[in-house]
Amino acid sequence: MLMNILDYDDLQEVNLGKPENSSGAYHVPVLPDEVVALLRPAPGMLFLDGTVGGGGHSERLLQAGAEVIAMDQDAEALDAARDRLGKFGERVRFVQANFRDSEEALLGLDERRGLAGALLDVGVSSHQLDCAARGFALMKDGPLDMRMNGMIGETAADLVNGLSVPELGRIFREYGEEPRAMQIAARIGALRLQHPFQSTFDLAAAVSSVAPRTGARHPATRIFQALRIAVNDELGALGEALEALPSLIVAGGRLAIITFHSLEDRMVKHSFRDRSQEWIDRPEWPEPRRNPNRIFRLLTPHPMDAGVEETQSNPRARSAKLRVVEKISDPTLL
Ligand SMILES: C[S@@+](CC[C@H](N)C(=O)[O-])C[C@H]1O[C@@H](n2cnc3c(N)ncnc32)[C@H](O)[C@@H]1O
Questions:
Q1: How far is CA 16 from the centre of its chain?
Q2: Which neighbouring-strand residues pair with 257?
Q3: Does the C-beta of 51 come closer than 6 Å to ligand 1?
Q4: Contact, 49 vs 73, CB < 8 A?
């Protein structure tokens, strides 16, 4: 269970103190070879990249001759992706949207063809973490924002200053799995009466005053992760996408999802399992029954993760997990 917390911390440390990530790129895509091998892009195929970020994965799909709808909720990401992918001309179209709204976004582009595949590489990009002004990084002073789409929704400061203490505690416990969730929330509740929280350093200092550093990890790591998840409703968006994307994919098409912490990976794993297992059994049934919700074939019974070589050159890949399913043509035939 600790894994997801360490993952976010790894991610923060990987980006610590550097003006850009170590490659100087906007973001280095994780598991790119595995994504290409499993999505099998080719000319004439249409893919949705729901988290285009710096465009690394999309570039690989485009290099193979496919068409790509490059989506991100972050306008800065789309600018970076446009710079990188503009050379592919009309084979790539860009759209600023939340992947939970993929269906509407495709209709907005007047795209009615089914997708040969979709990719979600969820979470934050290196650029978002590198940029102090975005407020994601606890080791860089910046406004307490954390919105991936900076135009809408409440900021982390809004939540920290506005939510009740029990609600803050719930967020810290559920999304950060923070053992001192209630203590930290109570401390924040007392401090914000004197001064509303405005910066990442304010918050990191407040957390440290309740939970002093004991190991290598900053004590505010779990709190930052929890707030980021809450600000962007990351689990809600992923849940809605898991419901919506299957119907946008053609039979034989594939859905690939990369996650970086266990809360998200668990959602993907359960959703893929529930829609791919052929038989279901319940103690009260005399015998197993065919699964009426089966629409997928599971291509990754175990999640794929990055090998030693990739994690050495891109430490962020350490916590990545890739799961892929293929839509089956007619569940009753299989
Ligand atoms: C890990 S990065 C993706 C990197 C990308 N695959 C690449 O090769 O550069 C995650 C990106 O997803 C975006 N994102 C996260 N959640 C999103 C959502 N619900 N809808 C749309 N974009 C989202 C973030 O803004 C960020 O740019």
A1: 20
A2: 120, 323
A3: yes
A4: no
Q: Which residues pair with 296 in a beta bridge?
A: 327
CB of residue 84 inside a 6 A radius of ligand 1: no
Which residue minimizes the CA distance to atom 25 of ligand 1?
Answer: 74
Angle between helices 234-244 and 221-231 (to 10 degrees): 50
Spacing, Cα 264 to ligand 1 middle (Å): 14
Q: Which amino acid is at 313?
A: S
Question: Does residue 121 line the site of ligand 1, with CB under 6 A?
Answer: yes
CA distance 222 to 70: 31
**Angle value at C-alpha 77, between 300 and 264, nearest 5 degrees:** 35
Instruction: For residue range 139-170, list pLDDT tens digits in order.
Output: 899 999 999 999 999 999 999 999 999 999 99
Q: Output the CA 292–ligand 1 centroid distance in Å.
A: 32
One DSSP character per residue, 264-285 reads: HHHHHHHHHHHHH-SEE--TTS
Two structure tokens written together for 298 = 């599971």
Give the Å distance between the CA of 73 and the centre of ligand 1: 7
DSSP class of residue 29? P
- Among protein residues, the one with the nearest Cα to ligand 1's atom 24 is 124
224-268: per-residue pLDDT in tens?
Answer: 999 999 999 999 999 999 999 999 999 999 999 999 999 999 999
Cβ–ligand 1 contact at 221 (below 6 Å): no
